[in-house]
Amino acid sequence: MAPVKKSGRITIRTVAEDAGVSVAAVSKVLRDAYGVSEALRTKVRASMSRLGYRPHAAARGMRGQTYTLGFLIPDMRNPFFSDIFAGVNVALERTQYQTLLGVSESATSIEMALIEAMIDRQMDGLIVIGPRMMSQDVMQVAARLPTVLIGHHATPGANFDTVNNDDRLGAELVVQHLAAAGYSHIAYLNQQVTDAEQTMVTTHREIGYRQAMKDAGLGKHIQVFQALQTSRETQGVVRHMLQSRNRPDAIFCWTDFIALEVLSVARELGLSVPGDLAVVGYDNTAYCDLAQNALTSIDQSGQVLGLQAARLLVERIKGRDQAEHFVVTPRLVARASSSPRRP
Amino acid sequence: MAPVKKSGRITIRTVAEDAGVSVAAVSKVLRDAYGVSEALRTKVRASMSRLGYRPHAAARGMRGQTYTLGFLIPDMRNPFFSDIFAGVNVALERTQYQTLLGVSESATSIEMALIEAMIDRQMDGLIVIGPRMMSQDVMQVAARLPTVLIGHHATPGANFDTVNNDDRLGAELVVQHLAAAGYSHIAYLNQQVTDAEQTMVTTHREIGYRQAMKDAGLGKHIQVFQALQTSRETQGVVRHMLQSRNRPDAIFCWTDFIALEVLSVARELGLSVPGDLAVVGYDNTAYCDLAQNALTSIDQSGQVLGLQAARLLVERIKGRDQAEHFVVTPRLVARASSSPRRP
DNA sequence: CAAAACTTGTAGAACGATATACGTAGAACG
DNA sequence: CGTTCTACGTATATCGTTCTACAAGTTTTG
């Protein structure tokens, strides 16, 4: 008598016995591999669903794919990432892939640790939003597994794909909009980073901002501030900025999240928006639409970004090794926070 | 000549050779297992760091632990979950465990699929926030792997741990606070669920609300509404509610997130807060502090909840099988949205 | 001082998939 | 009709750990 399975687990072997075929055949069906007839395929499929078989991801990870994708975000508080994530899920809905999230808290060290953890867990690919790592580290990661970056402007020769909106254009749209509405002392409130890189979206936005200011003849009013790590510190910077002698009459914030803080400080200081101060954000998140914010913002369609990123990643896992870079055109959504001035 | 390792990967075998000990010994060091001398331990540790060895999680998953915990949240938009997550990370900082997130979008089907995926991937344990599954499904999951629930009031005989705040008390605090401030027509805006269970936090809050209303002699003013799935639909409900003949003079929302929508609708309708309408939320998230919201809320210290959940989960993985239930006392944080009425 | 108990280490069988190498038909070809 | 293809299946080594069973050495016990 053959040695009977002791464990209760339903493995590929159980399925093979049930269907009366070899283990290898079942594996082929599982992977949609070449060399199985339609008859055998349906027979095996039937056995699998009858037994309620579920492939063991760890075992798969030993040899082949895990069908798990890593998704890394800097922050859980920024609702923009939620939009992107929704797009990713739409793209993967009908596939075998599952996505698991990591949150880096905008810290390079945590980001690297999470990526290591995901590589250890044999994820098939990685989507990283706004990476904080040095470019060379990104290249190293991409050499180890298929990688798509969102919100990172790659330099030529990159071995990964990117998905972006045109950040320079977005910033230009903001400045043009504000200038047309009668504002001139337009400041840019940037993200705090220890060492800015050319690849960062915020760098591009700053470049776009500076260029558009010059083009509008407002070059002498260029002012760039940095938001700090915590909410409290950022409010301090903004308060200082709004109480200074040459207070700006408009603030362009690198992301909506920060713009909400600006709105708060302005109100605390008794400044009316947009009467005394116009505020514009970036990402057009759900909070912009709330009447108490009514925040003008740049829409870069997070859903589309996520969807494209997932598509590119799956392509790359399937073998493509030519880098692709997807870019969407940003669009300004005007709301009350930047209404035209009444002179 | 012995067969040389072909692959470049640094495995437990490489370490064993380098340190001049057996594979089993290295494994013991790795797992802090019994039966290794201090000398051997340090020797192996040295080899590991010299070679830059990293354990292969998939291989671990075949036999032992994966040192990966699953963390399931209903929603990425609600910043309260971010606080909880931060607490979890603090608790796990100095351990080997890594946390990976899943987002169920408040849908039972996605929630179940994610849990299956996490079980397939051999996660060592699960933390689920505000589960939407039926109680019996929860029990089945908990039977398969160590489980801690946050925001779920277990019935006696549960085989999982829970971490909660006292939701009934929280709701009572709100009603007492509003009543003392001179409001009487206090409505409760609840979460939409297909079938409410006794285990849900929102059910407890509703019970607390009803009880406190009666205790305050306001029983005849009890009104419960349901927020719907999307932001737009919820705003519709609120608008209808605020334009009805017997409009409430205060609204208690089951979570801050919804309260912000109420503030928005009130403003659109030209109602002043708190002059015409007081608004109170739950969770005391970061958005409450923004001046444009100034939202009174119940603080249930998300950080503490997350920290305790992680602690309980690790204990359970280590073998405890007696259920434990941790409860924190909620605290009301008063802000301008519920200032006392001037008669 | 022999027997028992403990300590420290090793060998090697799992775990559940994947994928290579190969076997066996039947079809197509000259 | 023998040879070469093609299509379909199978047997089995392999991945990197964990962990049981056991061996050898050391200390304690009676």
UniProtKB/TrEMBL annotation, chains A, B:
- Name the InterPro entries on file: HTH_LacI, LacI/GalR-like_sensor, Lambda_DNA-bd_dom_sf, Peripla_BP_I
- Alphabetical list of SUPFAM superfamilies matching this protein: lambda repressor-like DNA-binding domains, Periplasmic binding protein-like I
What is the superkingdom listed in this entry's lineage?
Answer: Bacteria
Q: Which residues form the HTH lacI-type domain?
A: 10-64
Instruction: Check the record and name the PROSITE patterns matching this protein.
Output: HTH_LACI_2
Any idea which GO molecular function terms this record carries? DNA-binding transcription factor activity; transcription cis-regulatory region binding
Task: For this UniProt record, give its keywords in alphabetical order, as a comma-separated list.
Answer: DNA-binding, Transcription, Transcription regulation
Q: Report whether Cytoplasm shows up as a keyword of the record.
A: no
> Which Gene3D superfamilies does the record cross-reference, listed alphabetically?
3.40.50.2300, lambda repressor-like DNA-binding domains
Specify the protein name: LacI family DNA-binding transcriptional regulator
